[in-house]
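retry 2 of 3: previous attempt timed out while embedding adenosine-5'-diphosphate. Reduced batch size to 1 and resubmitted. Inputs unchanged:
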Amino acid sequence: MEKTRTRTMQNRVPTGIQGLDEILGGGLLRRSCVIISGGPGSGKTTLATQFLYSGLTDYKEPALYLTLTESPNEIKNNMKAYGWDLETAEKTGGLKIIDARPILLTSEGLITPNESLFRGEMLPFSHIARLILKEIRDIKAKRVIIDSITVLVLQYVNKFYIRQGLLGLVQALSSQDCTSLLLQETVGERNTIPLEWALAHGVISLSCDPKGGDTARAIQIVKMRGIKHGERVYAMEIREKGIVVHPKVTVLP
Ligand SMILES: Nc1ncnc2c1ncn2[C@@H]1O[C@H](COP(=O)(O)OP(=O)(O)O)[C@@H](O)[C@H]1O
Ligand SMILES: [Mg+2]
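retry 2 succeeded.
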């Protein structure tokens, strides 16, 4: 009995987020690709960085952060407010932040395509997958964040292309010895199930009720292949030192 239990836990990657590991029964599965979905300000970047920072500090696991939205400096500055020193982690070699924003700002304040990534074309999934695989191998990353896949998806109208591209990305990431969080930005799409959810191993949905109140923020594990997890919508807080989930406080969806 004890043996089975030990074997199961070895297969888990604790998120380091208080309450979330409890709902997950220990953590995420190794080599899984999990979508973190939610509206603006729902806590996606915070959750993902907390996961990554816990890996760096508690387990000495190298991490890769691919940003397609905020600049690396913005991320480092915002996360510093929680006490997470990404700057030092980057300097000491445990963390690599890759700036994969399709559009950059010039020193004169003008926008320009990121020519180091693509030349006048869209940013194909295959290109991103190749770039990530190279970096994962280089630093032996165990935790990976893509912030966000929405930027990749928005370039295409062809759903078949999106599906194949995302599937390729998920397969490429799962071929490595790492656990990946793919951030997904949602805006007012409460009644439709995004195509991306079918392709990932897991989906965690974050929400923030604009009316506020004590239970304004919530988290739900929509799916997690291979894991028996809590199925309710749980209260969540973003505190000074990061996210706290309350497994005993459920919220009506
Ligand atoms: N240092 C902090 N302490 C407490 N709450 C914070 C702190 N920094 C940001 N927040 C809260 O977290 C929210 C942003 O979370 P973020 O992870 O950036 O969301 P998302 O990536 O989903 O847009 C902010 O809107 C704010 O309410
Ligand atoms: Mg964000």
